[in-house]
Design goal:
Blueprint: H1 6-10, H2 18-32, H3 41-57, H4 60-69, H5 71-76, H6 92-100, E1 120-126, H7 128-133, E2 135-146, E3 162-163, E4 172-179, E5 182-189, E6 198-199, E7 212-223, E8 232-235, E9 251-257, E10 264-266, E11 269-277, H8 278-283, E12 285-291, E13 294-300, E14 309-312, E15 328-335, H9 342-354, H10 368-376
Helix pairs in contact: 2-3
Amino acid sequence: MEKRDYYEVLGIDRDATDEEIKKAYRNLAKKYHPDLNPDNKEAEAKFKEVNEAYQVLSNPEAKAQYDRFGHAGADGQGFGGFDFGGFGEGGLGDIFDMFFGGGFSSSDRGRKGPVHGADLRYDLELTFEEAAFGTKKEIEIVKTEECPDCNGTGAKPGTNPVTCPVCHGKGEVSYSQTTVFGRFVNVKTCDRCHGEGTIISDPCTKCHGKKRIRTKRRMNVKIPAGIDDGQAITLRGQGEMGERGGLPGDLYVYITVKPHRLFKRREYDIYCEVPITFAQAALGAEIDVPTLEGNIKHQIPEGTQTGTVFTLKNKGIQKLKGTGRGNQYVTVSIQVPKRLNEKQKALLKEFELSTTGKQYSEDGKKSFFDKMKDAFGV
């Protein structure tokens, strides 16, 4: 039977790069490999044809001879056999990496080792004050723990796990496999004991041989002063238990802070708005200002304008993992009276008629009203 053109066999152009040649070969070798196509003579023949083409086109000297003289040039150089040495830089190892996961055995071998326990999450809601000053909270979680009846062996009290009769305690079994490359030994996790090396013939009635149980646990959590919405507290080792001697996971307590009806928080500073009357703003007054510790007296000067911000030092939030506190910023807003009686209206009209623009200006400079009169003559 006449041989097909090697470029046609690999499905590549004559100016294909080395990487394109290798890529085409890998795809076709995997497609027609005998281990993936058992008892398929046609696939076996194509596999041989693909390998023959690759042996020539992956070798610069052989490829040059083939490009010049065709199959006669390649055959004359002794190519067309099955040495497989040209399969990439790793030779035979590369093809085993492709089909068996690396080397001459599967990557899933040996007794299973320790497994770290899973982490847990708990969502905790706090009041604004609890987050600011810190507190203690009792929480309840459901977690996996070692079975108290069998002490984590999985076997009924008074009995013990027995050595697996299939792997004899190794947790792995080996088997031979014959391929076109020869006979190789592969190793995998024992299906009978699942890599444990032991079998529980008489399971514990409480955990049913699982070595662990689900249980509810109550615990106290210390909330540090200054914690903020969205932050988390880490409790090491309070998550799910590990397997086969692995360390337990951690518990993460995520914090949600309820909004406050008066205060807003930005990092460690708090903000609030306090209404004052027109008279208080004009004449100055001592007003009550709410803080986290309760109301305090604060003196505002006469002529205070709406929107003025006063700073109360160290009246904010305790700094987390630090010293000192933030500040409290108080914004005053002047309340305009409603539903005035006739006497009050008359007094206000009299007051308005008695004022000039200077009462509304600073340092005797022209007020807005003076500037408007100058501009419009009103």
